[in-house]
TrEMBL record:
Subcellular localization, as worded in the UniProt entry: Cytoplasm
Encoding gene per record: serS
Source organism (scientific name): Candidatus Nealsonbacteria bacterium CG08_land_8_20_14_0_20_36_22
The organism's taxonomic lineage, starting at the top: Bacteria, Candidatus Nealsoniibacteriota
Pfam families (UniProt xref): Seryl_tRNA_N (PF02403), tRNA-synt_2b (PF00587)
Catalytic activity annotation: tRNA(Sec) + L-serine + ATP = L-seryl-tRNA(Sec) + AMP + diphosphate + H(+); tRNA(Ser) + L-serine + ATP = L-seryl-tRNA(Ser) + AMP + diphosphate + H(+)
Record: residues binding L-serine: 217-219, 248, 271, 368, 370
Residue span(s) of domain Aminoacyl-transfer RNA synthetases class-II family profile: 125-395
Organism superkingdom: Bacteria
Family: Belongs to the class-II aminoacyl-tRNA synthetase family. Type-1 seryl-tRNA synthetase subfamily.
First-level EC class: ligase
Stated name of the protein: Serine--tRNA ligase
PROSITE patterns: AA_TRNA_LIGASE_II (PS50862)
């Protein structure tokens, strides 16, 4: 969440940020509650100070003060709850250089990398190829689990682990610590990441009997790992690469990409996160983007880098870049990677700090970035690397992991 002091001093900036992000938060009401809250705190503390000065003979006065404190308490609790609820709804403030826009149609393409393949035959879509080569089976998955699920089979499974190994090999050499995180989070941990209020709540799977959320991305449990901790300054930036299965309802995508494995309820993902000092987070963000591009270039897949506008940023991010990979059957680029700078937004909610050289406690900045969203990367490989005879040429960088160069019937 934001610092209430920042909101008090910059109410118009916060209002504009909410508007630019498409959030309808009542900042005036929040500030009014803040005044009442602070007034109740001062009154209570003043009464308690008077109470502490009373001697044994001042029994009647002590009773009156105690009654006043008890009288204030329920109202204070109600105001505090309402204040905290409103605070949790306010999104992070976008950086000044983030393009202002209402939705993904107003994102800005920064650069295009790689050559779009020119086929001397009529290219097929990934599902046609995947089913023929027995790599993808959505019919049986639908029988077992319902719509928006798929089986990966045969060489596709080995390709998944090859992608994960490629990512982990690169990132561990760059100082990232490998983690296999839990895929379930306690309520307070889930909400601490900033993805489980407002519209994002509809995306999450929740198990009421156990009061646990299923992770929508590995980032959520990786960031929450250091909740309530004070990190030594010498350890920053502290970087992790995690791999996990992720779960999303895709509640807002009814009738969209319902076939195949592009938009599913369950998918695997290798994810990067970093805890760093505030002054380093913009540089760290560019570093994450460079790593994503390095992985994409190693696969030799054509892609474009997109600067995400305010209306498409989501709640926790102050800045975000997407990588969209060319999908021949759709004749367009589709998102395969994303990297976000969440500044101290998540750290404040989860109480993640570091102690600087002056012994002062500060909130860290948190960042996340996709190494590989496996399903979507496989789609891009299948379509861009398809051959006239219906086979798939495995990207050279993966061949040492897979043990084969071609996938054919």
């Amino acid at each position: 969440m934001l610092d209430i002091k920042f909101i008090r001093e910059n109410p118009e900036k916060v209002k504009q940020a909410c508007k630019n992000k498409g959030f309808d938060d009542d900042i005036d009401k929040l500030l009014e509650l803040d005044k009442k809250r602070r007034s109740n705190i001062i009154t209570t503390e003043t009464l308690q100070a008077r109470q502490n000065k009373l001697g044994k003979k001042d029994i009647e006065e002590a009773r009156k003060i105690k009654a006043e404190i008890i009288k204030i308490a329920p109202n204070s609790k109600k105001i505090e709850q309402e204040f905290n609820n409103l605070m949790s709804q306010i999104p992070n403030i976008p950086f000044d250089d983030v393009p202002v826009g209402k939705d993904d149609t107003q994102n800005i393409v920064i650069r295009k990398v790689g050559k779009i393949p020119e086929f001397k035959f009529q290219p097929k879509d990934y599902m046609e190829i995947g089913e023929k080569l027995e790599l993808i089976d959505v019919a049986r998955a639908s029988k077992v689990a319902g719509t928006r699920f798929g089986y990966l089979r045969n060489e596709a499974v080995l390709m998944e682990f090859a992608l994960v190994k490629l990512a982990f090999d690169l990132l561990t050499k760059k100082g990232f610590l490998p983690v296999l995180p839990p895929v379930m989070l306690k309520k307070e941990m889930a909400k601490g990441t900033g993805y489980f209020e407002a519209a994002d709540k509809e995306e999450a799977y929740f198990i009421p009997e156990d009061k646990l959320f299923l992770a929508g991305t590995s980032e959520q449990s990786l960031i929450a790992m250091h909740a309530g901790e004070i990190l030594p300054e010498k350890d920053l930036p502290k970087r992790y690469v995690g791999f996990s299965t992720c779960f999303r309802r895709e509640a807002g995508s009814y009738g969209k990409d319902t076939k195949g494995i592009l938009r599913v309820h369950q998918f695997d993902k290798a994810e990067m996160v970093s805890f760093c000092k505030p002054e380093d987070s913009k540089k760290e963000h560019q570093f994450f983007l460079s790593l994503e591009e390095k992985l994409m270039k190693s696969l030799k897949l054509p892609y474009q880098v997109v600067n995400i506008c305010t209306g498409d940023l989501g709640k926790p991010a102050a800045a975000k870049y997407d990588i969209e990979t060319w999908i021949p059957s759709e004749n367009k680029y589709r998102e395969t990677h994303s990297t976000s700078n969440c500044t101290d937004f998540q750290a404040r909610r989860l109480e993640i700090k570091y102690r600087d050289k002056n012994n002062k406690l500060n909130f860290v900045h948190t960042l996340n970035g996709t190494a590989f969203a496996v399903g979507r990367t496989l789609i891009a490989i299948i379509e861009n690397c398809q051959q006239k005879d219906g086979s798939i040429k495995v990207p050279k960088v993966l061949q040492k992991y897979t043990g084969f160069k071609i996938i054919r019937t």
